[in-house]
Amino acid sequence: MSDQDFLSILTGSFSTPCGDNPTVAMIEAGYKKAGLNARYINCDVPAENLKDAIKGAVAMGWAGFNCSIPHKVAILEHLDEVAESARIIGAVNCTSIKDGRLTGHNTDGKGFLASLKTVTDPKGKNLLLLGAGGAARAIAVETALAGAKTLTIINRDPKKAETIAKIVNENTDCKATAGKWEGDYTIGNDIDIAINATPIGLGDAEALPPINLDSLRKELIVADVIPNPPKTHLLREADKKGCTTLDGLGMLVNQGQIGVEIWLGKTLDFDVMTKTLKDIFE
Ligand code: NAP
To answer: What angle do CA 74, 76, 78 make, to 5 degrees?
Structure first.
């Protein structure tokens, strides 16, 4: 056995408060199945320690790390390179370290896109986004770069939807429009894919985004970013109408898988990662 065999490949997550992070179990189960001597470590990194934490990761030879609130924007100034979609989104949640060089990516939208592509190609399609937070912004940019024809973004605070529409219109060929979300929203007949990108439904199987349920046509693809519970009230209603549905669990697993592909060039077992998350969430 060489010295190298004793060294773990180090990856992980920087956030604060870091709390219970199901991604740890999900990725480590994938590492184990792949026979990789790799770890995914959940680190509580306060905002003022981000720079030192990054230096530490580089010094220890980490392959890369995820970061979430409050680091997704602050990390930009510490990077050597930023991938195109992360630059447009203006936030990084996945950083790779190669030969001491740091490259930032955003895997939120990429995870959603990978999930979406299991049922359809967004190219030439009309998308509706409910919500205009960080997840919505990442999904908007990634689906627009993938060739979506139009994006309609609605939000309680229309200014946030307008900001995303502007970013999409300035950086892609997709035509984005923004609107205010008031009352039960009626999904237009021209929409091909409707996406809940709000936290409505997280940890609450009965919560339902305010939409006109009669506007769920069977031709519609309905996606939810909520990973837990995976079968949200919205998706159950969409199932009843015969729509194709996509849950946020798939998005989360894809996001984790894409991060490891960026760091290690290895594709972890999707089913093992999904089962690990389902066991945690049940
Ligand atoms: P965020 O930045 O806080 O944005 C939340 C958005 O939802 C805002 O546009 C907000 O509207 C809207 N919203 C919140 N409560 C609402 C309500 N009751 N009615 C209507 N709109 C409401 O959050 P985020 O980072 O985008 O995350 C959103 C969700 O995505 C979270 O639940 C997160 O767990 C999930 N997510 C999942 C994955 C995955 O891999 N599955 C990845 C990332 C995020 P206002 O602006 O008007 O307040």
So the answer is: 95
* Ligand 1, atom 39: closest residue by C-alpha: 252
Cis peptide before 209 (omega within 30 of 0): no
Closest-CA residue to 229 (of 201, 209, 210, 251): 201
Report pTM.
Answer: 0.96
Query: Can you tell me the distance from the alpha carbon of 36 to that of 28, in angstroms, rounded to the nearest whole number?
Result: 9
Question: Computed from CA positions of residues 207, 162, 135, 222, in that sequence, does the dihedral angle turn out positive or negative?
Answer: positive
* b/e map 210-222, b = 16+ CB within 10 Å: ebeeebbeeebbb
CB of 242 within 8 A of CB of 254?
no
Q: What average pLDDT does the segment 77-97 reach?
A: 97
123 is catalytic: no
Are the CB atoms for 42 and 26 separated by under 8 Å? no
ipTM over 0.90: yes
Residue tagged active-site, from 55, 72, 231, 275? 72
How would residue 1 be classed by pLDDT, with cut points 50, 70 and 90? low
Which atom belonging to ligand 1 lies closest to the Cα atom of 199? 32
Q: Where does the chain show beta strands of DSSP type E?
A: 9-15, 38-44, 64-67, 81-82, 94-98, 101-105, 126-130, 150-155, 175-180, 193-196, 221-224, 244-246
Q: Which residues contact 99 (CB under 8 A, 6 or more apart)?
A: none
CB 47 within 8 A of CB 74: yes
Taking Cα atoms as reference points, which of 13, 39, 30, 26 lies closest to residue 277?
26
